[in-house]
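Give me structure tokens for this 436-residue protein.
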Amino acid sequence: MRHLIAGLLLAASLLPAPPSAAAGELAPVEQQIVHAVRAGLPDGLSLLETAVNQNSGTMNFDGVRAVADLFAPRFEALGFAVTWKPGEAWGRAGHLVAERRGAENALHVLFIGHLDTVFEPDSPFQTYQRLSETQASGPGVTDMKGGVVVMLLALGALQDAGILDQLTVSVVLTGDEEKSGKPLDLARADLTEAARKADIAIGFEDGDGNPATAVVSRRGYSSWMLTTRGKAAHSSQIFREDLGSGAIYEMARILHAFQEQLSGIAYLTANPGALLGGTEVVYDSEATRGNASGKTNVIAQTAVAHGDLRALTLPQREEAKALMLEIAAQNLPHTQSELVFTDGYPPLAPSEGNLELLSLFSQASMDLGHGPGEAVDPARAGAADISFTAGLVRMALDGVGLMGSGGHTVDEVADLTTLSIQAERMAVTLYRLSHR
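Here you go.
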């Protein structure tokens, strides 16, 4: 898999530069775009502060809707038709969907973001704080309210330059990216429907926080539940031919084999995140918590492990499942095992189209004086909503939002200098794409 990605990167590096401007130069309309982005920065920073100060933890439905209500007029001012899609059917607040039709046969671009954060109303981390001229902290400042502001700055600059009509743009801001609703196919139906109509998908997550990178591939994830059972008996009789080794030894055998046989496969991980064993086990998979009881002088009757599987491609995921099932089936005497998978986010596999889009983005960045852009190592990229566009669009790129560090923690800090940089890069890239 690493060789595949290296080959795709090499192919992308050989792509010709966009015809609209020579390397290191900007066309007059591109200079106008840059001026428009920079002129919009004060308002963008104010919008960012307001958005961060509105709590929108995934399960704070009113807060998620309030953030949608904050962003909706900004899209409407740019000529978008905005719709709120209620999320009762998947147990969440809902999504904001915006559409703007361009000229006939215009390139159709899908912008992807989310309204929610991991910080619920009971979190101690609630407010935006300006730390310096170049830094600010706050819940969701990079993940990803800053990304939505980057999106709006880029769109506003294209509008000011009189070229937004050269694109058809769809926007999907989900309300449950951090804690997806169920069923997942219903929770992402609006996103996949939008992807089927689009040519290109762009996600405004913060990637690995490095402004010199963007995401062309993401690993998907599946959850798995492994249950093992053995014969209960006095501990002094364990290993007896007619009793066997019990549920915990069988669990240990399987998990050890997972580690031995899967750990050397590039971009593949299988992590047991919760484990219980004993005479009686009660486990709540939704809350990922439970209770186990037993005695040291009794052979364990039941064990449960709950984990996740992450893979870069669908074939890799299915091959890993098959191997895990094979391992689980090789039971120790007088034990049984059951391994069940539930697929979550699909992988966004590396593709020539994604690398071509990265190359165009990188060229625009260099012409703007911001340096080249490189692909994030998929091992450092978690799951994200853009993965639902895999196989539905010609090109996809993610991780082009506001950059910083400490995401998902109370140390989340944004590098405010990247607000303008990211918006400039994206706006110029989109302009060049519209003229290919």
